Every structure is written in C-alpha cells, then in structure tokens.
Amino acid sequence: MSRGSSPEGTGGAGTFYECRVAALDLGALVCRIPVEGLEGPPTEIRLQQGDTGFPLDDVIAVDQSGPFPFVVEKQVKRTLKVAPSEEPWRKTVSQCLRSLHQHGPEIDARRRLLGVVATGPVRDLEELTKLAKAADRPCLDDFRAELAVSGRRGESYHRMWRHLTTTVAHLMTAPGGTHPALDCVEETAFRIARRLVVQIEPETGGATYRSLLGLLEATVVDTQRGPGATDVFRRLTDVAKEYGPQGGVIDVGMLRDLLHARGAVLRTDPSALAELEAIRRWTEKFLASSRVGRQLGGRLRLERAQQVKALHEAVGAYERVLLSGPAGAGKSALARELAGTMHASGGTVLALSLTERTWHTVADIGHEVGAQLERTLAAAPSGKRLLLVDGAEQVLTDDGALLSSLLEVLPRAEGGRWRVLAVAREQAADAVERVLGRVDGGEVHRL
C-alpha cells in the first residue's frame, strides 16, 4: 500500500510538518518513553494508515505491551482553527465520527484516543484541551452538570463545546434530511471530546523537541563515536519521510536498525540492558571453559599467529564465515580466541556451542542464556557484533533447523547486522555452508 501525505492545499500539514511530528513519536519509541495520550511507551509507530482502520491516519502510536492494545491515532494539521465554517476542522471532526463508528467500544473504554496535532491557533487549541479535560467524565449527565457550574465561572472551553456540537450536528445531517435530536448530537460530541488528545507543536524547536534531544543524548545516542542527537533527529525525520508514503509500521528494533543504517551510533536499548548483560555473562563463561584452556595451551597443527590473522581478516570481510577441519585441529580454540578479543575490545558477542547442550529451539537457547534473543540481539549497541556458533555439525541431526532458526533472529537491516562465525567438523562443512547461505542468500567464506 502506498499513500501520499496530506496536501497543504486541503488543510493538511504538509510533508515537512507531518514528518517532524512523526519523528517526535519515533524518538519516543526509541527512547522508550510515553507519547501524549499513552501511559506507557509505544511499541510501534504507524504512518499514513487511512486504509487500515485508522480514520485519523497521519501518525498512530500503539502500545501492545499489555493484554490489549492502547492506541492514539492522530491527525496532523499545520493550523486548526476551531469553527464549524473551517474545512480542516470539519474534516477532522468527520474523521473522529468515522473512528467512533468503527471503534466505538474501544474509544469509550479509553483504549483508543483521538489525537489532533497543530501549530495553532494556540488559543483555540488550548481551549480545546480544556474541553477534553472537562469532558473526561463517566457520562454525559456528569459533563452537563460540569458545564452548568463552569458556565457561571465563564470557562472559555464552552465556545469549543458549541463549535463541536454544531459541527457534529451538521455532519450527522444527511443532505435534505432532518437534524438529529439534540441528545444524540451531544452524546456523540461528548464521546469525542472526552477522548481528545490535543498537541500544540511548533514547526521548529519547542519543549517536546528539546526534551527529546536531551533523552536521545542521555540514553540512546553514543555521541563519542557518532552523530549527536540533533543529527539523529534529522535521521528520524528521514525515516518518517521514507516510510510515510508506504503506510509504514515501525517497531523499536526496526527503528534502531534503520538508524544504524543511516550512520547513527547507538547505545544499548535501555529495555534490554539486563538481557544483554545476561548474554555477556554467558559468553564470558563459555569462552573461559576448561576445554578452551586445554586447547590454547597445546600445540596447534598450524602456526597460531597466521591462523588468527587469517580468521580475523575473514570475519572483517565477510558476514558469514565457516571454519572447518578435522577433530583436534584447534578450530574451536581459534574461534573462541577471536571472539574473546572482540568481546574484550567492546564488541557485542554471543558465543555458544550447538553440541554441548541439547537445545531444540531458539527459545531453548534464550531460556538458558537468560535473554529473549530476537529482541535482545536487535537492541545491541552499534559497533562490532559477532555470533559464534561452535559445534555447527549439529546440523546433521536436524537438517539445519536449529541453526537456521538462530540465524533468522539476527537483525537484517544494513548497519545493524551481525557477523556469524560457524565452526564445524570437516564432514559437516558442506551441510553447514548450505544452511549459512540459505537464510538470506549471502556469500559464505570457508576456511
């Protein structure tokens, strides 16, 4: 599906402003912080979703971490003057009515909110925000009681309520038909008002933007090794510009990979720190095993320095490297020595042997390591990343099912990819090479 952004000439926000608003929510996604309307951080951001059940379709923030999803669907306008005669306002209310028709129970249950984002007029948007706050009540009768009290105080949001009910009445009236009953109009307007989320976002700068830059720099971006937070925000805007017309759905793992591919250097995803620490502890224990110690202390058939150099160059040049040879030739010792060097220099390494455990699935591996591998490997910081698979001859026992599954969970986006070093006995080398090559069709370099 491919859709264009809202054209400026029809009251839409225009490409730049829409992308900027989307970039703010993408920034919240990667920083793991809530967006306006959600109590928890979003798990995905959807862009231009009008054809997939989101009438307010420009930017949709979704939190699927609980038993059911929470959604804020947003319509982005450069300006949104609140008056029944204003076409952008009429169109926005019409979209709210469609969402109410399609998702009424979710909206009433506060699992789906109706968002509007604009630069101004500030007075209108501030009064609309006050209306939403005042309408946040269990039923229309409670809100009517509040209206009666606040009317005596001269609350400014009464003007917004009149504009909303008038607009709803016009939109609910069929051409040539009779006007709907007042109770029906007010009930419908109330259901919209109490679920409105209003954001005032300037075209440049602003409090949300400044706060996001601070969080990016403090928790996500490695400014010592790559671009700063301002440049990373530009890359977030580029992601929105690219994926908006495609009706893109972006989760945090995908977004980190897209930023990696655009030259951003990221720290560990904050939500995965504990699991990456579990991988680190597992790898250190694995590399320090007594089996490795004995082999490193023995005499190898080939000159060690030459072997280490050749292996290091191969892993640097190729994504998939297969090291094979007869039993006792020192393959595992060399591979683990390389992995240990990369680990000690700050790289992210997951090292394991498929023949030293009786694993059947990736979930089995993750359970023993202490990490949900697909999520955690995608959350690794920028820099060197290596998956060392010793005992790869295990493919002969299950036709490569376990190794294939392990390779499938590795991130695939450019800039976020992992190197793979597989170690296998000579008689299994051809079978292992086939498995390494069939996952993404890449070249396998054999040593």
How would you describe what is shown here?
With 447 residues, the chain is an alpha/beta fold. The protein folds into 2 domains: 8-261, no CATH class; 270-446, P-loop containing nucleotide triphosphate hydrolases (Rossmann fold), CATH 3.40.50.300. The chain has 18 helices and 11 strands. The protein has helices at residues 15-31, 87-108, 122-135, 140-153, 157-172, 182-193, 207-220, 229-243, 252-261, 273-287, 290-297, 304-317, 331-344, 362-369, 373-378, 395-398, 401-408, 429-438, and strands at 44-47, 59-63, 70-76, 112-118, 196-200, 249-251, 320-325, 348-353, 385-390, 419-425, 444-446. A 6-stranded mixed beta sheet has the order 5-4-3-2-1-6. Strands 8-9-10-7-11 form a 5-stranded parallel beta sheet, with helices on both faces. β2 (59-63) and β3 (70-76) form a beta hairpin.
Topology:
Elements: H1 15-31, E1 44-47, E2 59-63, E3 70-76, H2 87-108, E4 112-118, H3 122-135, H4 140-153, H5 157-172, H6 182-193, E5 196-200, H7 207-220, H8 229-243, E6 249-251, H9 252-261, H10 273-287, H11 290-297, H12 304-317, E7 320-325, H13 331-344, E8 348-353, H14 362-369, H15 373-378, E9 385-390, H16 395-398, H17 401-408, E10 419-425, H18 429-438, E11 444-446
Parallel strand pairs: 3-4, 4-5, 7-10, 7-11, 8-9, 9-10
Antiparallel strand pairs: 1-2, 1-6, 2-3
Helix pairs in contact: 1-7, 1-8, 2-5, 3-5, 5-6, 7-8, 11-13, 12-13
